[in-house]
Amino acid sequence: MTSHSSEFDRFQLGDWELQCGESIPNAHIAYKTFGNRKSPAIVYPTWFSGAISDNVWLIGEDKALNPKQVGQATAFPVHIISITIDLLKFFIIIPALFGNGQSSSPSNQESDKPFPKVSFFDNVRAQYELVTNHLKIQHLHAVLGWSMGAGQTYQWITQYPDMMNFAIPFCGSAKTSIHNQVFLEGIKSAMLAVKTQSSAGSKEGAIAVEGEKQRNWSPKEKEVGMKAFGRGYAGWGFSQAFYRQRLHEKHYGFKDLESFMQGFWEAWACSKDPENMLVMLQTWQSGDCSNQKPYNGDFEKAMQSIRARTLVLPCRTDLYFPPEDSEYEVANMSPGIGRLEQFPSIWGHWAGGPGDSKDDLKWLDDHLSNFFSIEQLE
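Structure (tokenized):
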């Protein structure tokens, strides 16, 4: 069953069982599609805190993710196949993470219980249900995504390794590193402290106090907690060189660092629901595509299972998804499966999205176009 809004559609999942043993009652997944369903399909999941509309910057008739069908590849002989690739456009599916406020989330689920732990496995299983049972697509051209979208990309290609031809994870990882978990513990703890709560540890929520009922955030708690969250994030999203070259002033137009902290980071964080952010943060911290059968925690085995031709695109200055992690991922893929190229950028994690750096957007779009074209010809 599908319901509609002006911005996206919802696919009803029923009571959705989770890896943790709990379930989301009457769950739904939000999604939006672009293009003709008969075109080769691409799944492009959302990222941490991102709404479906926050993915659209990479889609357009002037981009590699072009949803407009302008020709038929089968009408041309093999010797001009490079032209036909440009004519064959895509059916693009953007599914939203659980917890993003559009798919099932604390902000849209009425319950007096804490929202259950949700993994990348749970999200991708729901996306698979959407793609195969609702949209009636049995094979994908590609899966790709930025940040947590990259984590979902790795989940797709290990959970359903025969489902797609290509994969492009950018500025993300197949397994959330310990250092990345530490970063997330810091910003999570800053947020929880406003409610006099403490973290129960990485991959967990707040420490539960016996006899104390869950309560909503007061407006003041939300304001103070999310401002602290945003300021903690500010040292990680962009690189040292980004700030050293004062791009917060030169690019974004803020007069100084404090106005940037308030007008960019605090404004972003305060626009989000804290409980939604905690759900997605827990999903991020627990990211590990080997945490499923048949890998059972064997990360190298999970990497070796990948069959989709995979282009891995880290940024050389990303502070929480460093290129070293990507190099290890590609080194453990089977020969001929993985390729790695680095964003040559000082924008850090923001090189991969959400499209603020136009030079990096062009670099990414060019690499997507070239990858699809070259791999199609081989």
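The CA atoms of residues 189 and 199 lie 6 Å apart. Residues 71-87 have pLDDT under 50 and may be disordered.
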